[in-house]
Amino acid sequence: MNAASVLRILVVDDEPGMTRGVQRILNGFRIMLPDIDEDVVFEVDTCETGGDFLKRLEVSAPDLLLLDCKLPDMSGMDILEKLSHPKRDILTVMITAYATLETAVKATKLGAYDFLAKPFTPDELRSTVRKAARDVILTRKARRLAEERRRMRFQFISVLAHELKSPLNAIEGYLEIIKNRSAGNDEAAYDLALDRSIIRIGGMRKLILDLLDLTAIESGQKIRKPESVDLAEVARSVAQNHQAEASRTGIAITVTCPEPVLFLADPGDMEMLLSNLISNSVKYNRQNGSVTVTIAQSSPGVRIDVADTGIGMRPEEVSRLFKEFSRIKNEKTRGIAGSGLGLSIVKKLALLYGGDVGVESEFGAGTTFTVTLTHFQEGLSSVGAET
Amino acid sequence: MAGKKTVLIVDDDPDFVESTSMVLRRDYEIATAGSGQECLAAVAKARPDAIIMDVMMNDVLDGLETAKKLKADKATAEIPVLMLTSVNQHFDYRNQVEDGYYPRDRWFDKPVKPEALLSALKDLVK
């Protein structure tokens, strides 16, 4: 059984039989909302006059209001009007003895959520309350999610700004040195300053491109068309693209898939996935090390393993791995350039294909990333920014 | 090179270390470190005459914490430390003045001109 949210209902009616009846029916009434994973129970309170209600309102407000149209001191409509200035977060169900279309329209314009015509059965009451409760819970959930999204976007942008500031500062520092001849006659220093500036610019470009890839996945704007893709072939092609870079440190990239591995997917997605994995394995590797890519059918989908003989990671480094901009920063990795977004992209793609990515690593020995994919999905609503 | 004072540059950005070194090494011996831990190890090995340290390294306030440790240890408390911050940080951390830690003129915002560091070093390293 799920944990339950407690909604406060206030019944405003001068007929004690009515209010007692409602209390009896709703106390202990538990609503299950399985599609949003929440249960609701109620705390029922009562009062008998409009004045009483308005006084209570100053102290605390209910979540749901069952309001009789005719009260001894004022009409339900008057109260509705008072509730709309200033607008409050209370769902009001009007209890009416005669539900004419006229009163219904008027009440709705004043902000009433629903109506219950007297006399009503317990089932009718429960049904109406169920609808209103669901509405309250959904609205709150939506607000919480929107707030969460805003907070995360702010944090993402803050980190991004920081990531771009570093290379900009570095490049500016070098250019000033060149401009002012601050290194005197040390010509090698000026050459280094130019080389490093160009490298840092490359890093910034990669960051921006990765960011675009990441956003394209999340926004669902990119047009993705599934077709039968031979993953082995894609892996070989990506390996070839990275071979030049790998050769610089003597690294061999091997793709071990004797047979074609067919999978229904967007080719661009698969290329992006393998490219990020292989690129990482080449970068975080040792001199004359190796990268081995193994792809196989693994019901219901496929399994991709990319193993390297690289520097490996400590357990606490592994836990931070898939966060955006998270880069393992230690003595061994200081010289390695990266956007910090590569694995984030891999993870989002894996999730997009109904799968996931796992990692096994031994510090000093090597790392293996395992990606499982099950099937192509159109929708992206499940792939949020919170991975 | 007898007589040249030593400056330890501590920053997780190797390009900052390199470019600062390019300017300072005409007047000082340069030692480098990429983290607080490396800084403490370097200081233990050979006491520098001054330290230039980034407040935030590897996404944590490594530099600030390391500066406090150096200050807390009698053997290293007197080594002048120039603290470097990124603009939106210094509003929070400049108020470390109360411990008599690092008076305001020892804080610099990045991007910092190496000449400003040279100037400060001239005053602090006697």
Helix content of chain B: 25-40%
Show unreliable segments of chain A: 381-387
Give Rg of chain B in angstroms.
13 Å
Query: What is the quaternary state of this protein?
Result: heterodimer
Overall pLDDT of chain A:
87
The whole-number mean of residue pLDDT values of chain B reads 84
Residue windows where pLDDT falls under 50 for at least 5 positions of chain B: none
Query: Approximately how much helix is present in the residues of chain A?
Result: 40-55%
String of helices and strands of chain A: EHEEHEHEHEHHEHEEHEEHHEE
- Major sheet characteristics of chain B: 5 strands, parallel
Number of separate strands of chain B: 5
Annotation, overall tally of beta strands of chain A:
13
Q: How many alpha or pi helices of chain A? A: 10
With strands numbered from the N-terminus, the spatial order across the biggest sheet of chain B is: 2-1-3-4-5
Kindly name the structural category of chain A. Answer: alpha/beta
Tell me the major beta sheet of chain A. Answer: 6 strands, mixed
What are the secondary-structure elements of chain B, in order, as H or E?
EHEHEHEHEH
SS strand fraction of chain B = 15-25%
> What is the number of helices of chain B?
5
Name the shape of chain B in a single word: globular
What's the quick description here?
By secondary structure, chain A is an alpha/beta fold.
Topology overview:
The complex is a heterodimer of chains A (387) and B (126).
Chain A: E1 4-12, H1 16-26, E2 31-33, E3 38-47, H2 50-59, E4 64-68, H3 76-84, E5 91-96, H4 101-109, E6 114-117, H5 122-180, H6 187-219, E7 227-230, H7 231-247, E8 252-256, E9 262-265, H8 267-283, E10 290-298, E11 301-308, H9 315-319, H10 342-352, E12 356-362, E13 366-373
Parallel strand pairs in A: 1-3, 1-4, 4-5, 5-6, 8-10
Antiparallel strand pairs in A: 2-3, 7-9, 10-11, 11-13, 12-13
Helix pairs in contact in A: 5-6, 6-10, 7-8, 8-10
Chain B: E1 6-10, H1 14-24, E2 29-33, H2 36-45, E3 50-54, H3 62-72, E4 81-86, H4 90-93, E5 107-110, H5 114-124
Parallel strand pairs in B: 1-2, 1-3, 3-4, 4-5
